[in-house]
Amino acid sequence: TVEWTGEDGRKPLAVEDADLRDALAGPMLGRAYLAGEDDARVQLLLPVLEARSSSAVGVLVVECDLAPVVRPLIDSSRFGDAKSAEAHLVQRVAGGGAQIISPLKFMPDAEFATVIPSTATDTPAIQAFAGHRGVVEGLRDYRNVEVVAAFRAIEDTPWALVVKIDRSEAFSRY
Question: Fewest CB atoms within 10 Å of the CB: 41, 65, 139, 155?
Fold first, then answer.
């Protein structure tokens, strides 16, 4: 892991060695993390190429605010009057778990503080990281409530998007 402090003096920024190696092959979105209280950030890693050979000689790491990236994806206003519907982002963590990186409707303090373990194979987040995608009925969400969920890993990122509604609410009108 390489660490340094940003020019604004905030806590050291950490970039995993594996991410640096992967970024030598091409641009990539890095991990989301908290740089301070209510300061979620994300890294964009870009290879620095030598002019004559076009071979990668380094990696430029750009850090930006995560909120403008996340907010449009999880905007719950598009769910109408559904009480339990929500969208959230998770990122893969060591050991195959899924860390919640966006606010949750029913667990406001879960962002960056909650990891769904890889053993929770009946959750949409773990299903997405296992390579599954689509709309599935009968999985359980982070509250252990049965849901109808649409989910998929987001290509070329360590993230997955989960959109879900409680099964009882989804079928309450039928």
Answer: 155
